[in-house]
Amino acid sequence: MPWDVAPLVGRQTELARLAGVLDGLTGTGHGPAVVDVTGAAGIGKSRLVAEFCARARDRGLTVLRGRATEYERHLPYQPLADALADLDSETGIPSPFAEAHTMDRFALQRAAAAFLTRIARTGTGLVVALDDVHWADPASLELLDHLVRHPPRRAPVVIVVARRERQTAPRLVAALTRGVESGTVLRLELGPLDRDACLAALAPDRPAGLAAELYTASEGNPLYFLALLQAGRPAGLSSLLLDELTPLTDDQRRTVQAVAVLGDHAAPALVAAVTGRPEHELESDFRELTVRDLARPGPDGRWALRHPVLRSLVHDTTDPTLRTRMHHLAAAELARIGAPVSERAHHVERALTGWDPHAVAVLTEAARQAAATAPASSAHWLGVALAHLPERPVHGVPRRDLMLRRAEALGACGGLRESRDLLHEVISLSPPGTDDGARALAVTLCAVMERHLGRYTEAVALLRRELARGADLSPAETVRLGLELGSSAPHASPYPDVRDDVARTLELARSLGDEVAEAGGLAVTALGEAYEGNPEAAAEATDRAAALIDSLTDQDLAGLCEPLARLSWAEAFLERYADAERHAERGLVIARRGGLLYVVPHLLLCLSHLHVMTLRLASALELAEEAETIARGIGSDELLAFVLASKAQALVPALPPGDGGAVAVAEEAVARAGAGTGWWASIAWCVLGFAALHAGDPVRARAALLRAGGEDLAGLQPGMRPLFTEVLVSASVLTGDHGDARQWAERARKEAERLDLMAQRASALRSRAQVRLAEGDLAAASELFEQAAEEAGRGRGGLWEAQSLLMGAPLTASAGRPARARAMWERAVRLSGEAGAHLLTGLAEAIRPAVFVESETGPEVGVGRGADAGTPSPEPAAVQLPVLAALSAREREIAALVAKGLTSPAIAERLFLSPRTVETHLSRIYRKTGVTSRAALAALQTRDELREGNA
Length: 951
Hints:
Layout: H1 12-25, E1 34-38, H2 45-58, E2 62-67, H3 78-84, H4 88-91, H5 105-121, E3 126-131, H6 138-149, E4 157-163, H7 170-182, E5 185-189, H8 195-202, H9 208-218, H10 222-231, H11 237-245, H12 250-262, H13 268-275, H14 282-291, E6 295-297, E7 303-305, H15 308-317, H16 320-336, H17 341-351, H18 357-370, H19 375-387, H20 396-412, H21 416-428, H22 438-452, H23 456-467, H24 475-492, H25 499-512, H26 515-531, H27 535-551, H28 554-557, H29 562-573, H30 577-594, H31 600-613, H32 617-634, H33 637-654, H34 661-673, H35 679-694, H36 698-709, H37 721-734, H38 738-755, H39 758-774, H40 778-794, H41 798-814, H42 818-835, H43 838-851, E8 862-863, E9 872-873, H44 889-899, H45 904-911, H46 915-929, H47 934-950
Parallel strand pairs: 1-4, 1-5, 2-3, 3-4
Antiparallel strand pairs: 6-7, 8-9
């Protein structure tokens, strides 16, 4: 029987799960966005996918099918482009791949996702099935990774990928595995067919003994079993498939070989050009190949061999000389008909046997066109060109230039180490004193790669060595090297150590009239001064940098878009959130357009930080997760530490009280940072402390902050030191170390006064409020929390405003101002509820009984939940049960002593417990009540005692 109509054997379990996916698409359920079908070659992946697609069509869904191919693994976006090839005329919506060369790869990823959404909405749903994804090109793998992480959730779309597990790129495997864990990916691992079902369905008329023998030889693999059935004897798969070619004539065999060489481009006219025969003579060959089920026609008139395994076998057994000639003829014919240069490059590469200037020109042009959308393919084709360039002096400059281009492409696609190694070769080929600027460019780019790999010491040493050449450098080269030194050195040593170098570079750039370089120098200055906590100097440099950058075009900044990242971070530290967001978004557009992959995470993380500060948590997490994907691909542990710390920062307010998800991410961040002591390592430890505090572990929080900053806190970022010190104050209060809390709070006050930044002042006020509350001065604490909320609100920092309001509301109520307390609570709920800040909404619910106190005539008006959150509505008193009712007797006893101001050691002594046991009980109390501070717990306990007394 023809193999394509063989019945689907077994797989009932898989079919049932796929039916659930279709139910989700058609609205009767909630299925995953991606189906991952894995298994060995010939195990039936394609057959199962075909059945799924047929059932989807029966339900009226649009179905698109494409596949990757073994010998075209450097043709960008082939499987997706193949799947979408027939849609243009049907929908009137052009495929994004038709104009892929006009946009960067990140824009193309978003355009592809939007395109799938539009197609799905034109009908009842969309299935995109991609076969043999283990052979997909790097650009397609990156696009699939994007679609797995950001599936079109607002449209009925499901993507099916069929692949061989062991041959799949690790990056895609990781993305799919994370999807399985989060529930967005359904994985189906296909094993051998059941013996009885296989024999009954595929060999009903064969002698039982022979059929059983063939099944054993096939090991339950349907492809192999069908081949054995056709041969009627046990044998190796390769020999069985080659036996099918034996009856063919020489012309028919040549046609099969041409189809194997051409792959998805095997149109009859191209087969004719490759075989050297008239197109009409091929008709009889194709008829015979169809009868023998060796080749099959496609809907577009092109031909393909029956199975990729057959194509691989035919291609590899074709005489190498003949195969090379066929690729050469294919390239010539594609050039004659005006085919895209990428299609020609594929055949040119396989036809090259030596130096051919015309062929290398095709490869380098294909590399140029792919640089923005598929830098991995660009790097590959440049590598092929370099491999065939003769080792002669006349080719020295072209070789160096090709190596530079390839290094840039490798850096753009995340191959930082390979790029750096190649740049070392370029530097050695460019002796000092050359006047074309190639050496300085190579040194600068090499330092960029070292910097993004976290090797700051090596980057600085390389740059200082080159700058020491002095007179051998042109002024423009000196500026280029100086700007990179200003970017790398602050990571290896304090910014003041490089301040003079940056100033000299800035002065030289001005003297040259180089506005782009001047903007870069000002941005370096702004970030350095902002980090060091010098707000006046930072503000001056920021103002000048912003004015100059805003006057430049995107084209001006295309080769130097990192200043936008530095300016954005400087503005974020100065709490100029709107300006920071504007510049980061512009930088992101420029970086994506230019394919500068290593710059993108810094801009994404700045935006994520801004979205956290302004309580846009869903988008903050999306931005951090996109940065995480890129950072993992780049392979820089230090960058990944910073990315994961930023992700944990967003997770803390996004997760409910007591959830340990943020702690787990922060733990990986500090693990990636290793023994590092620089800025990013310090940030990772600070965020771990922040996450641990809100998870109810103040002891660990304190330890993490001291690991980040040292006992003198010198390692903490000076420009944000009050905010980090607040963690130490909270941890000290929770553990009963009131003396330490007072010292940290006083230090935070002094630092905040010097910085004169609203979020930092608000943080210092919260620290002082916690100390006053621990000392029993509820009125003073209440006033300080309200001042903190006002400061944060003035700075448009929604996160800190909401937190300050919630920390102060119970105290304001207990101070005899219930209307003010309710207003504070309601505003905090509006801010946090709209943002999905589950930590804050959980805290709001926990302190609710302490805020909405009962009047003499009965319960006051409450606040509704859900869709009506923030709108006053009557609520029965039964709903307002004491929050502490869920505690055990021992936990309530400890909570009561906390309310009296006793420290953990004092509580331990009174109850004959160890201090560690008291801390364990406190952690459980925080989880049960949803509060995250000793002060809030004391307020809850006081309110509960008042309620019991009135009862």
